Amino acid sequence: MWTRRGFCYPSVKGAPPAKRRRISPNSGSDLFETLPDDLVISILTKLSSSASSPSHLFNAFLTCKRFNNLGAYPEVLANASAKSLQVRAKSWSKSAQDFLDRCANAGNVEACYLLGMIHFYCLRNYASGADLLARAALSNHPTALYSLAVIHFNGSGRPYCHRDPSTGAALCAKSAALGNIDALREVGYCLQDGLGLPFCPSAAHRLLIKANAIELITKKKRSVPQHNYKHRKGYCCRLNMDMSSNVHQANRFMVEWWGLAGTKAENEDGLNMCSHALCGRRETRRHEFRRCAVCAVVAYCSRACQAMHWKMEHRTRCRPAQDPADVVGAGPEGA
What we know:
This protein is mostly helical. The protein is 54% helix and 2% strand. It has 16 helices and four strands. The strands form two sheets. A two-stranded antiparallel ribbon has the order 1-2.
């Protein structure tokens, strides 16, 4: 009902009318300041864990001085969502790195993985990058386990003699058990080649079929209309969009980082990028990545990237090398 003083909820029949608390506008009291810090931190933690972009989180911190101070609490930073940690390579700065450092030190697993990949492959701080990746892997981060496996397979950041296929295969097996499709496919190739695992073609065949089946189911869940594949020109582009939907933001960052560097970075020390366009990994020493055994033109950081790139475009472009020395020159790095 409406009264002269505004809307009033009707009281229960037979009960005395509820007394409304009146706050004088000139009293100077701020009810927000009376809230305990634990409650405000809990609210900020819920916000950071559900933020869909960095701007949503930082806009909340800039709301008032108290939010800005309590937003730096480890509990808030440790629960920040992966989307709230997204950073673009063109926007990379010391403040962005400091924020990710604070999140990683607070125990945020996603921040450890993202910052570890940036340190290892972009900033070439191999020791700190591997340490951050190891911290994420200890928390059973599937992608961090797989990335550490790739590092061990290639001996990245160290001489060629430090390659460790056995440790790489073990890390891949754990990552595959946690649901990483690339790691599952890599384990299959390890069994197929006898690399780090006993040679077992039958088990390798089963794992590779399982990886392809999971990938197919994932595509169907994304409900991509089939008529988009009828046009041959747009097939590769459409497939790239399909594959990129599950690419981690660390890979997106690395692709953008080296894209901004351009050919200058490629000609600086002769290090190649992984030919899978959605990977973003770059060699840490010359001839680190495996080359295609047929054309010897493209190079891959892993067999999983080779399989994905083959499906996306390389199967239509791969041609036998004219000079047999090109293939022989691949040596132990040949795919």
